[in-house]
Amino acid sequence: MKLRIYQDEDKEALIALWQRVFPDDPPHNDPSQVISAKRAVDDLIFVALEEDSIVGAVMAGYDGHRGWLYAVAVDHAHRRHGIARHLVRHALDALRQLGCIKANLQIRSDNAQVVAFYESLGFCIEDRISMGLNLRRPA
Fold this sequence. Notes:
Blueprint: E1 2-5, H1 11-21, H2 31-39, E2 45-50, E3 53-62, E4 67-74, H3 83-97, E5 103-105, H4 112-120
């Protein structure tokens, strides 16, 4: 497996991966728009390759104060091979190089398997409430 920074020619393969891994994502999480918006800000999208095919990806962010892991995706056929673990560690190393001292992420509360995965990497559940506001609707 090889990890590298996302390149523009990866877009179609990355979109296909996200659509397979996140089939129930709401329409506002359109992968093409998300990738374009993220690329306009920084290079914190990394892909995992097996024989030149994208089998995993992670999208991270840094606002100058905190780092975020926005999405981690691994193709179903390539799970349980340590790809997600390598992607997350790679993204965390990239955040550290930017001076980031803390990384956050959000997980759906019913996803115990993913909670356990991140706990195995040292993440802890924090006493916080995550709130959101749909900016496409009038306030």
